[in-house]
What we know:
This protein is of the alpha/beta class. Helix content is about 35%, strand content about 15%. The protein folds into two domains: about 25-260, Aspartate Aminotransferase, domain 2 (3-Layer(aba) Sandwich); about 260-330 and about 375-405, Aspartate Aminotransferase, domain 1 (Alpha-Beta Complex), CATH 3.90.1150. The protein is built from 13 helices and 14 strands. The protein has a seven-stranded mixed beta sheet, sandwiched between helices.
Amino acid sequence: MNPAFQSAEQIQLPSDQNISGRTLGTEEIEMVTQALQSGTLTSTRGTFVKQFEQRFAEMMGVDHCWCASSGTAALHTAYAALDPEPGDEFVTTSITDMGALTPILYQTAVPVFADVDSDTCNVTAETIERVLSPRTKAIIVTHLFGNPCDMGPIMELARSREIPVIEDCAQAFLATQNGRLIGTFGDIGCFSLQQGKHITTGEGGMVVTNDADLSRRMFLFINKAWGYGDEKPDHYFIAPNYRMNDITGAVALAQLNKLETSVNHRVQMADLLTEKLQGIDGLKTPKISDGSVHTYWKYCLNVDGDKVPGGAVGLAKVLREDYGIFSAPRYIQKPAFQCQIFRDKVTFGKSQFPFTEARPEAVDYSPENFPGSFAGLEGILVMPWNEAYTEEHVNYIAHAIRNSLQQPGEYN
C-alpha cells in the first residue's frame, strides 16, 4: 500500500451522547444541589428557570424568553401563539425533525412543505414563495445543522405578505448573519436543550420574542393558559402544561455559562476541518452564505456519487468499518412528507383532520416538486461533532476521509 494511504491508529471520538462530548460537570451538580436543597422544584415558585429565562433573553438581546419542557414544546408554543384557524397553512421545510411538524397538526393547521437548497438543505425565499397562499398563517425557517438560512430575502418576502416568521434555532445557538443573532430576525425564535444540542439539559426548550402580545400568549400556553399574576386569573383557552422544572432550569443555567466558549470551539475546529479537506474531487465542505456564522451542531459534507464510489453511503461505510467514525448519510432517510403520518394522513382517529381542510395543492407531495430535497439528502453526509473535539480529532477525521477517497494528505 502507498504509505500516504496507510491507516493511523484508530482514535475514539468524543460523543455528545455521553460525558466524553459534553461540558456537564461540577457547576451543574452544585446548582442542582441548590435546587434540591430548596425543596422547590416547580418553576412557578422556584428561581432557576426564571434566572435562565432572564439570562438567555439578555444574551439574545430580546425582551422575552420563556422555557418549555422540550424543543418540540417550544415550537408548539410558538405555533399556538399565532392562534391558527382549522386549515390554516404553516409553510415549513421538507428536511426537519418530526417534533417540528406534529405540533402544527395539533393546532389544526396544515404543514405545507417548501423545497430546499440542495447544498445547504435550507429553505430559501424562492422555495418558500412557490408554496405561499392566501391561507398561509406562518413561515417556519429551520437553520439546519447551525447553518443560517439567508434571512434577508426571507424576511423581505414575509413582511411584504404580512406573514409571521418563526425561526427554528434548535441546532443554531449563537449563529449569526451580518452580525445579528439567528432567532432575532423573525417574530419568534425557538431553541432546544435536547441531549445533543450545543448545551443540554437532556430535554428542554425556549421561545424568544420582542412582541409583548406573542410573549403573553406563549407564557399562557406553557402554563395551561392559567393567568399567573393576573388580578382574576382563569384558564383562558385550551393549553397543556409545558413548564420546565427547576432542576432542569438549574442545569440550564450552569450550561449557559459555557455556551459561548463551546460554540467558539466548535466553529474553530470546524474551520480547521474545512481547511484540511480542501481540493478533494467529489467532496464539498459546508456552504455558508455571505455574512453568516455557522455554529456547527453537526459538520456536513456533500458527496458527489458520480465521483465517490457509493456516494455518501459508501463513504460512511468505509469511515465506520476502517476508522470507527460513525457518520450519518442522508441525515433523514426521506423527506418528511414521505413519512406515514403525511402519506396516509394519520392524525386524530380515522378523521384525517386537519388534512380534510387542506387545498389539494398544499398536500401535493409529488417528487418533482422537491428536487432540492431529494438531491440534498442523496449527497449529504453528517459527521459527528461536539465541543470536546481537539486538533487531534480533526486531523484524524481529515486523514480518514482522505484515505477513504484515496486522497493523500498529511496526518499529524
